[in-house]
Design goal:
Elements lengths: L2 H9 L5 H10 L1 E5 L4 E3 L7 E7 L1 E7 L5 E8 L2 E2 L3 H4 E2 L2 E2 L2 E4 L3 E7 H10 L1 H27 L2 H11 L9 H8 L3 H13 L1
Antiparallel strand pairs: 1-10, 2-9, 3-6, 3-10, 4-5, 4-9, 7-8
Helix pairs in contact: 4-5
Length: about 190
């Protein structure tokens, strides 16, 4: 098991070596290149994901056929849990690699069995949900009340160095501004 996966499990309360081994036995570690869809909006997907390293973004396709980025995941993080990212068994967004990544993939049913049979995994599930809910509400407030400049500054605080890792049009999409506005905003912030 990679040290980063070990760190993720520790962070969410799985400290027992035996339980980590059990998780490892039920999951698959995958290395994927950039620009690969891990799962796609409106398609069935029955896995939970733990991003060990790299950068991904979640996105939807607008009615104009444009990609709209709605969030980022950086290494050492849990992807939004299955129950929260699906509706009637289908994904409500797509997840795509933006850099080469390493992730752990475990069938939902296997992780549910672990949660139902072990207190540490129950607490793991609870902490994961709490973290996701907190992040979601915080970002909702930021995006409904901050200016584009403030949103970019917040993004930089949450994900330092992201602008050096991924295409700027994806960041502009996430901020809800055009590529030209994003370039202007970056220049303005460089001057100040």
């Amino acid at each position: 098991m990679t040290n980063h996966l070990d760190d993720i499990l520790n962070h969410f309360g799985i400290s027992s070596r035996a339980l980590k081994k059990l998780f490892e036995d039920k999951s698959v570690i995958k290395e994927l290149p950039k620009n690969i869809n891990i799962f796609v909006e409106q398609k069935k997907n029955e896995f939970e994901y733990f991003l060990i390293s790299g950068v991904t973004h979640r996105y939807n396709i607008s009615d104009k056929g444009e990609i709209v980025t709605t969030g980022f995941y950086m290494g050492k993080s849990v992807i939004t849990p299955h129950f929260a990212r699906t509706n009637m068994g289908k994904s409500i967004f797509s997840l795509q690699t933006l850099t080469d990544i390493v992730l752990a993939e475990i069938p939902v049913i296997e992780l549910n069995n672990l949660r139902n049979s072990n207190r540490e995994f129950q607490e793991f599930g609870q902490k994961t949900i709490e973290a996701e809910l907190t992040k979601t509400f915080y970002n909702e407030v930021v995006f409904r009340s901050y200016s584009a400049k403030e949103r970019l500054l917040e993004l930089r605080k949450q994900h330092p160095n992201l602008e050096n890792l991924i295409p700027h049009n994806i960041i502009a999409s996430y901020l809800g501004i055009t590529n030209v506005s994003f370039s202007r905003l970056r220049r303005e912030l460089t001057k100040s």
